Amino acid sequence: MASAKIGFIGLGLIGGSIAKAIRRYYPDHQIIAFDKNRETLALAVQEGTIHISCSSIDDNFRGCAYIFLCAPVSYNTAYLAQLKELVDPDCLLTDVGSVKTSIHEEVTALGMERNFIGGHPMAGSEKSGFANSKAHLIENAYYILTPTSKVAEEKVAAYRDFVASLKALPVILDYREHDRITGTISHLPHIIASTLVNFVHDTDSRDELMKALAAGGFKDITRIASSSPVMWQQICLKNGKNISSILGQYIEALNRAKQLVDSADEEELYSMFESSKDYRDSMPNSSAGPIKKQFALYCDIIDEAGGIATIATILASNNINIKNIGIVHNREFEEGVLRIEFYDEESSSKATALLQKYHYIVYEV
Question: Cα–Cα distance between 148 and 109 in angstroms, integer?
Fold first, then answer.
């Protein structure tokens, strides 16, 4: 791809990560950006991620090959109107939102269908903002593309190839199907995590004993509750119809589980846990999804001075970088007492084999 100008509106976690990926793989491209946070723009310029910071959506965005809308979902639809007079026939508009129907409807209303392909990189983090963005965030993650019915096939093919060149995995879907799928596998889990955390908070004792004991497994399954409240508020507002329907079906599933507990049905209870285990175990062991996989292991260690330091030394001497390490005090869910997290699957697998070689008992996640 020849040198081109690429614009970003919104430079948070996802926008910043895509901009950094473009900078890595296309160093000759000119990147311009608008963000309401001036400190974000200053940092992006200082780091060399963008060339021009814009104080508004203005003529700087003329002549862009691609313009990425990376603001919260409701803001993206509002920004479309401002861009209408700035885009030429060759410019492709795209977004990164987790909900597609609302922006497709706005694109249609504005007559901008020939310039638009919806986008949703199914990657993220519980941490938000440009400061936490990384060039490899979308690497090996599914990147959903939702073309309009009027965008040229050549543009779809070119953008699909561009996304693939950033090491993401492009998948083309109808925008309505996208919203139904993500409502189930992404939006519902975030609501479950948030309501579960709030439930523990509301039912905890005055001395907050639940909070003190809620380590390990509880923190793992509710990790995504730490995501941006603004983003998830917007997602629920924009995909409300799908989410409401999905929540209704899930509540029915919870009621069925309650009935099994109430009736003490041994066979059906076992079947419920067995089927969920089998289905989950059959899922691909990769990070390509809306909830990023964590690469971690649990390790039994002797309670003695220097125990953690010894393990850290073994891993460091074999060039294995540790992302996080800590003692698990609540062992109801995990079998080990030391949890070690790594940056990638290769490091986790190598560490497992190495520690087992030194006769440590290791449990992989």
Answer: 12
- What number of other Cβ atoms are within 10 A of residue 188's Cβ? 17
As given in the structure block, the two tokens for residue 30 are: 């000119």
Average the pLDDT over each of 15-29, 165-179, 206-220 and give the range with the smallest value.
Answer: 206-220
Rounded-to-5 percentages of helix, strand, coil across the chain? 50, 15, 35
Q: Judge if pTM exceeds 0.70.
A: yes
d(CA 187, CA 184): 6
Q: Are 248 and 147 in contact (CB under 8 A)?
A: no
Q: Which residue has the tokens 């909070």?
A: 211
Phi and psi angles of residue 169, each rounded to the nearest 5 degrees, phi first: -115, 95
Q: What is the dihedral of CA 152, 153, 158, 164, to 10 degrees?
A: 130
Distance CA 319, CA 285 (A): 24
Query: Which ranges constitute the DSSP H helices of the chain?
Result: 13-25, 38-47, 73-83, 101-110, 153-165, 175-182, 188-203, 209-213, 217-221, 229-238, 240-263, 266-281, 307-317, 345-357
Reported as a pLDDT band with limits 50, 70 and 90, residue 334 is: very low
Per-residue tokens: 106: 């706005």
Q: Is residue 340 classed as helix, strand or coil in its secondary structure?
A: strand
In this prediction, residue 331 carries a pLDDT of 46
Average pLDDT, the chain: 88
State the DSSP string of 6-26. EEEE--SHHHHHHHHHHHHH-
Identity (one letter) of the amino acid at 297? L
Q: Are 340 and 363 in contact (CB under 8 A)?
A: no
Asked if 9 contacts 32 with a C-beta cutoff of 8 angstroms, the reply is no
Cα separation, 4 vs 11, in Å, equals 19
User: Is the torsion defined by CA of 231, 237, 243, 244 positive or negative?
Assistant: positive
What does the pLDDT average to over 173-189? 93
Residue whose tokens read 């990769």: 286
pLDDT band, very low/low/confident/very high, at 215 (cuts 50, 70, 90): low
For 116-128, letters b (16+ CB in 10 Å) and e give bbbbbbbbbbeeb
Q: How far is CA 76 from CA 155, 238, 286, 296, 352, in A?
A: 21, 12, 30, 36, 44
